[in-house]
Amino acid sequence: MEPRLSRYIWSHTRKQQLWILLVVALSMVPYFLSFDLPKQIVNGPIQGEGFDSPEATQAFLPISFDLPFFGEVNLFSGIELGREGMLLGLSLVFLLLVIINGLFKFYINTYKGRLGERLLRRIRFELVDLVLRFPPSHLKRVKPAEISTMIKDEVEPMGGFTGDAFVQPALLGGQALTALIFILIQSFWLGLVAAVIVAVQAIIIPRMRRRLLVLGRERQLTARQLSGRVSEIVDGIGTIRGHDTSNYERADIAARLGRIFKIRYDLYQWKFLVKFLNNFLAQVTPFLFYSIGGYFALQGQLDIGQLVAVIGAYKDLPGPLKELIDWDQARQDVQVKYAQVVEQFSVEPLIDVKVQEISMAPAAPLTGALAAVNLSVADDGGSRLVEHVSIQIQPGETVAVTGGTAGGGEALAEAFGRLTWPASGRIVVGDDDLHALPESVTGRRISYASSEVYTFQGSLGDNLLYGLKHAPLTEVVYDGDKAAHRRWELMEAKLAGNPCFDLNSDWIDYQAAGATGPEDLFAKVRAVLDVTLLTNDIMALAVRATINPAEHEAFAGEIVAMRGALRRRLEAEKLSDLVVFFEPGSYNIEATVGENLLFGTVTNTERWQQALESHPFFKTVLKRAGLHEIFYEMGLEIAENVVELFRDLPPDHPFFQQLTFMTAEEIPVYEALLQKVRGRPLEEVSEDDTIKIIRLCFGYIEPRHRFGLLTDGLMEKIVVARREFSDGLPADLVGIIEHYEPNRYMASASIIDNVLFGRIGHKHTDGSERIRAIVRDLFESLGLYNKVLAFGLDYDVGAGGKRLTAGQRQKLNLARAVIRTSDFYIFNQPLLALDQRTQDQIMRNVLDFLRARERKPAILWVLANQALAEHFDRVAHFENGRLVQQEPKIPSKDSDYKELAS
Amino acid sequence: MLLKDEVEMLRRITLFSGLPPAKLKLLAFTSDRVMYSAGENLFHQGDIGDAAYVILAGRADVLVATPNGQLKVAEVEENSIVGEIAILCNTPRTATVRTATALEALRIRKDDFLKLLADFPEMAVEIMRVLADRLSQTTSELTEARSRAQRAEA
After folding, report:
1. Are A672 and A778 contained in the same domain?
2. Is residue A162 domain-resident?
């Protein structure tokens, strides 16, 4: 980028700057006219100059010029008006001039503003464009937060400066020069004095400001580093807390803030010192006028009239001069900022613009071999990770790379994936250098996946299809307002040097995924998800989603209909004990007592708590059902048990996670409560205490807690009370409970809970696994599978994919590569987060899947486990960065290779 | 089976016999009671260990994958604990455990188990004793296997 801001602004806004200069010059005409007008109004109609008699009239708005050679040219002789008419006329002209001046100002300011915003847009875009073209080594060194601060905050003032960059100095300089010349004409010597002082100002002030600039640069750097550190703290919060280093971080931040404070305070002091000096110099000139000029006037060497005129003219000089100096300050300030930013972004060698050029056409298949020729790769410290390796991967061939972490296979794969650049040697595809080929070829015909995953914030589906979004493939047709808006967008983008790619276009390259369009893409997605064993993960996410049944009416209906099918299926497979269904007439042993009593779920916990404590309804119903006393006894029993179990544990003990009845803090409360009520009959216990004890029952599940508190008789009573609860529920409690109804979709429950309409038994560890498998199977047979899966693809993966597990992210990353049709697949231990068995399974799946393609692609797989090498055509073994051995498949069990590998 | 009964069963296991009854109850409460039918896997070799199992009733086989298929190396039965190595050393499971009969077990989660060891040193000592026993058994089996191999070579 251009290192000087003024030149950058000039080269991009030359025409506009000239235009605005012209408009400013033009605006001076009404501006000066409006200066002269008040004098005319006062002297003329008000004081009566030229209106000697009451009937006298004058010409209003005569237009005449004195032209050389022609003499006076009279275009319009004006309207004859009396004194009042003249006053009104001239006042109206004044008003008109005010409006015209205002409009000029409005136009100039908006024009300048727009100019600035466009330039800002251009700079920001160019910077991001540069980031996209940074070499990999540089990206390892920079902190993302610092780059984003530069692009977001540091270039911001440049937009504001753009409009004033050339107009302001021209305007103010002109004004100051006019004033100076006027003084010089009045009195040469006094003019000379003024000129000398101005010269002193113009030389000293900028010199003093140099220090301001140094400080300004420091301020910018420290602020940028601060933002980098803050983002580091946020990213590394786990490590910080885990190592108790939060106070070290506090110290670091405090020290940084202290430094920033010092710089800013220094800056502040200097700024006002300079201001003081500036003001002083400006005021010293009149002092010289008065003293020296006055002395000469007394001596009779100077006309008093001249002195007054000089002093009068001088008052017009400091204003523009001060503004000019301020403008210069602003200029230097943004220039420093700009130079700083440009320096940070001046990285060599950048990826050539041509390499990243957009290409709408599908890339032609690569027919040559992918090969490393005498390739060396070094890390940042300069030590060689790969040394003089030559290896060739023929189209259609599968190669396993072994040799462990220090071997060099990973570095080789990274070099093939263009994540690192060769230190020496080359990587070629056929006869072309890999780095000279456009990314529209290498980024499509070669797919790379490693265990280092980046997931973008958005839905799972977006992330899966991310690798297909190379170019806007469809032309979106807009109509009406949208068309106008699109035209405006295009025009503005062009004016700011931004590309015109339409984000609303369909960027997905269906062909590259082996599909013909959006309709059959889903089948491909499904296949890839199956291959990478992601389907079950996504289904698990999908079935846990809550949906609004009003929006998906048909689907909700089908889910409700599935309840019966599930029941029949479980019966047929003799697995009925896996799930205990909700039946209006019987107790559900796997659900809590509360759920059984309400026969529904609480949708608003807060209001429910309140109602439980203060609403008379519950107590009356419990009493009527004969449950009040039983629940009290049961609550006591639970409290006794829990207090006994957890009394001695410190409050942060992990066992408390399994305590559902109360929190760790409540243990001593209940302990004291038990002391108080033990042995006393219920009537003597206060209302509050009773509620505290009774509410413990609501979370009790017999098979889980195993205190032996639920008898058959009690369960029957609860079921009887259930009806009273639902029938007699007062109006003010209606919204907080959603009842279980066999024929209705529950909006507050997840999809799986709606299908099950019951609770999974505690007895089988893999009960929920098995149920999930059966439910998935049912979805498939009822044709609901894809619909549910689509809900899963809508799942928001969170910032950096944090809402997925590391294993899921890696599987997603692999799927993202496999869904693309490429000629070469480079897999660099892509599944490290998974257990060995799953890794093997997915690897075999992927190999089979890719081999079954019409054009069999070449695959290079860096393996962590040597034993898997038998699935490949060839094995390349690396040691200490060198290719030690290449073998076409391991011939037999006890070969030399096996020995070498072990 | 109630919590009380589980405590009784836990008491019969050597590993836990030294613990006060209140702690046994806590252990039982924080663990999951699980049931398996014959032929199911408690866990699989190579997986990451997340829990240990105390077998309350039934039998299971300990299987190790070899190039010639799975080899049964031991059998565990009532009142014994399996799967504690993987959660102690953070290594993948060293063997597969498959039920031979219907089986009932208490599943003790890794974090809970480690916390218990930290809280009750006598339990840690007991674990050490069990491991040392196993090591000496393995060593003697290895010695035997070696001498057999030597004899075969000679």
Report:
1. no
2. no
A803 and A782 in a single domain? The answer is no
Residue A653 contacts B, CB cutoff 8 Å:
yes
Contacts of B41 in chain A (CB under 8 A): none
- Nearest C-alpha in A relative to B51: A765
Please identify among residues 669-708 of chain A the ones whose CB lies closer than 8 Å to any CB of chain B. 703, 705-708
Structural domains counted in chain B = 1
- What is the domain count for chain A? 4
Residue spans of chain A under pLDDT 50: 891-902
What was the pLDDT predicted at B1? Answer: 61
**Count of beta carbons in the 10 Å neighbourhood of residue A533:** 18
Which domain does B57 fall in, by range? 3-153
| Cβ neighbours, 10 Å, residue A269 | 11
Report the residue of chain A nearest B4, measured CA to CA: A707
Supply the DSSP symbol for A706: -
Which CATH number do you get for residue A81? Answer: 1.10.287
Closest chain A CA to residue B111: A654
* R_g of chain A, CA atoms, integer Å: 41
Q: How far apart (Å, rounded) are the C-alpha atoms in residues B46 and A722?
A: 49
CA A445, chain centre distance (Å) = 30
3-class DSSP state of B58: coil
Q: Is there a single domain that holds both residue A723 and residue A747? A: no
Q: Which residues of chain B from 97 to 136 reach within 8 Å of chain A, CB to CB?
A: 107, 111-112, 115
Q: How many residues does chain B have?
A: 154
With a cut of 0.85, is the ipTM above it? Answer: no
Classify burial at A122, counting beta carbons within 10 Å of its beta carbon; exposed 0-12, middle 13-18, buried 19 or more. buried
C-alpha A675/C-alpha A698 separation (Å) is 22
Q: Which residues of A touch B8 (CB under 8 A)?
A: none
Nearest CB neighbour to A837, from listed B28, B36, B44: B44
Cβ distance of B33 and A654 shorter than 8 Å: no
Q: Is residue A640 a part of any domain in this protein?
A: yes
Q: Which of A111, A133, A155 is the last residue of a domain?
A: A133
User: CATH number of the domain that B124 lies in?
Assistant: 2.60.120.10
Best-predicted range by mean pLDDT (A242-246, A252-256, B37-41, B147-151): A252-256
A501 token code pair: 């790619």
A596 and A678 belong to one structural domain: yes
A-B contacts (CB, under 8 Å) = 59
- Residue A111: inside a domain: yes
Same domain, A374 and A451: yes
Share of chain B above pLDDT 70, in %: 98
Supply the range of the domain harboring residue A756: 553-570+578-582+740-793
A31-73 per-position pLDDT tens digit:
777 777 777 787 777 777 777 777 777 777 777 667 777 777 7
Q: Is A835's CB within 8 Å of B48's CB? A: yes
Please answer yes or no on whether B47 and A837 come within 8 Å at the CB atom. Answer: yes
What is the three-class DSSP state of A737?
Answer: strand
Q: Report yes or no on A295 lying in a domain.
A: no
Question: What are the backbone dihedrals phi and psi of residue A523, each rounded to the nearest 5 degrees, phi first?
Answer: -60, -40
Asked if B32 is an interface residue toward chain A (Cβ–Cβ < 8 A), one would say yes
